Amino acid sequence: MKYEFSYSNSSGVALGGIGSGTIEIRPDGLFYDVNFFTTEIGIKDRKEYILPGDIFLVTRKDKQLRILASTPYIQASSPYTMPWVRPVEKIVFEGKPPFAFLKYDDIASTTFFSPIIPLNLKDSSLPLFEGKIESEGEVTLFIKPSFNFNLEKGEKYVKIISDSPKGDITVFADNVLSCGRAKDIKKAYVDIRSKGFAEDQGEGEYVFISMAKSSRFTMSWFYPTYKVRDFFYTRYYAKLFKDSMDIARYYWENSEIKEKTRKFYDIFYNPKGIDEWIVDLIGAQISTLKRITVLLENGDLAIWESIYDPDSGGPEAGAFNTTDVLFYYAPTILILYPELLENILKWTREFSIKEKSKEHILYTVSFPENLILLKERMKKDPSILSDMNKLAEVVSEIAKKTGKDPIGRIPHLFTAPMKTVDSYHMVDNQIDFIIISTLLSAYTGKDVKNDVIPVIRSFIRTQIGDYGLPYHTTPAGIEQEWGTTYKFFNSPNFSFLNGYNYPPIGYQTFDVWSMLGYASYTSIMWYSSLFLLRNVLNIEEFRDLENKAKDSLLKLWNGKYYDLWFDPESGLRDKACAASQLMGFWYSRLMGYNMEEEEILKEIIKNNLIEGEGVINGVYLDYPRPSFNGNMKYNNGTKFPYSIATQMDTPWEGVEFALASHLLYAGMREEAE
């Protein structure tokens, strides 16, 4: 036997609305990752209500049946007992989100898509997709839910109604031959073989709708409850529609939705002067955007940091609207749906540290000088330990006295959208908020001065060092905090030994990669934010600090690029070349300002672009990599772990896309490609 096998990606095109849940059509012709039900889409152990292979199409060809999927035999098909019904041998799949085009052994073709219309959130968030079928014979769509349901059917539709999960699914088609339920799938196959359509058996776990050779259908859903941890939310579409049939009816009555989506597709995939592979790479992010967003009742948007995958990992609990990740995708959200970016920033600001809150107490005493004063007060007045109101008052007094007051500090991420956050430990989150808000203002005209100034002042009070740049204290990375100190003591009782500030305030987005003292990544972001405050928002208050920050950047400059970090307190320096060192200048370019950084960008490409790997986050020019030599220590004197597959020695897609965008805005197309 001779076979030719080629690997097919385990991802396809996500079908569904922005924030409304999706289902994914993949190159094998099957539907995967149905995440429009009530459970969290990122949780490792979420329940699967519709399994891969439980939504499938069957077509008739010369008294033979073909399942429109290129898989082993599925759904009672068998080469031994029913050789006349089997999957197709080959599928040609072309994914161009929001569209997917499939051709099956020259006997049928399908086009699937879901609406996406920039600046039109309602129609872009419809929980629905359309399928168009061209076939030599009639086609039947089967659905086999893994839950109990009732079925409502009409001349052109079937509606699956369930109590657990509570909601409904409607399949609506234009050229319907029959529809109903089937208990005996083999009998349904016989019907299709002999008549071209299945007969309603009145009961059974399968739902079907048989259609003519050339047909259009939509699948819409209405599962408005969304659960994260112990919180229940209502999806955005629930305030617009009463059920999945209402959604289908709206779509079929408004043909311009399809027309505008097609127009977006035509413009997007036919740009002038850009290679097709680049467009495809960018287009794939449309699919990602649909999969990871949750749009809630009041127009509140929650975006997963990533989706859990059994092979590649990902969040096993809530991780939404991560501020440092938002930094990389904010420009996309801004262009497509600016109100959603404004919404994310609103809620991020709403959860900044408030005076006398639990977070205010914790992060105020993170500073040793504050903690010492608090302990002195406790020694003189032990009642502070049993009176939380008094504790909050005392801590507030101490913060005002020392000036180390974290009021206004921006959170890292939401563990439950608009309800709870995890921590306030990242330096760059503060700058992220400032610089993204400035971008929003630059493109929309929104006045953000009152939003950003409290954050800037908080940052200056608590994070800016003598050089006018952000200063990173330990712990500054998981590889040190969890991998050395905490591991050594193996007890939370010794957490105060994990570093200079505890809870931490010295982390940045590369959270398993410690950067100490003054880091090029956050320093250039900080300088850029001050530059943009003055030039975009016309805020002159911080001009002296801007000039000081600009001058201090020279202390990181080595003649070719900016060193990763240097710490005047310890005398240590890390000379690695970071791919992300100029991200602040990227935002400056997005707002029309040339920071004269072209030569540094060339140096980054020269050093960090590795054939067969991509753009590596960080590279030592004269020191081995763990991916060649195994686990070692960083080449900076800290003796912190520099391990195989650590963040420094791997590529991050977000950084790569941002760097490519930066290069294009700087007129360096060859390097970008």
Could you characterize what this model shows?
The chain is an alpha+beta fold. The protein folds into two domains: 267 residues, Distorted Sandwich (Beta-galactosidase, Chain A, domain 5); 245 residues, no CATH class. It is built from 20 helices and 32 strands. Helix 11 runs antiparallel to helix 12. The chain is elongated. It starts with 12 loop residues before the first strand and ends with a helix.
Q: Any key phrases for this structure?
A:
alpha+beta; eight-stranded antiparallel β-sheet; six-stranded mixed β-sheet; Beta-galactosidase, Chain A, domain 5
SSE inventory with pairings:
Layout: E1 13-15, E2 23-25, E3 31-32, E4 55-61, E5 64-67, E6 85-87, E7 91-96, E8 99-104, E9 108-113, H1 121-124, E10 128-135, E11 139-143, E12 150-153, E13 157-163, E14 166-173, E15 176-182, H2 185-195, E16 206-211, E17 214-222, E18 225-228, E19 231-234, H3 244-253, H4 256-268, H5 276-292, E20 293-295, E21 301-303, H6 323-336, H7 338-350, H8 358-364, H9 368-380, H10 388-402, E22 414-416, E23 420-421, H11 427-444, H12 449-462, H13 478-489, E24 518-519, H14 520-535, H15 543-552, E25 565-567, E26 572-574, E27 577-578, H16 583-590, H17 598-608, E28 609-610, E29 614-615, E30 618-619, H18 626-629, E31 632-633, E32 641-642, H19 653-665, H20 669-672
Parallel strand pairs: 5-6
Antiparallel strand pairs: 1-2, 2-3, 4-5, 4-11, 7-8, 8-9, 9-10, 10-17, 11-16, 12-13, 13-14, 14-17, 15-16, 18-19, 20-21, 22-23, 24-25, 25-26, 27-30, 28-29, 31-32
Helix pairs in contact: 6-7, 6-11, 7-11, 8-10, 9-10, 11-12, 11-14, 14-15, 14-16, 16-19
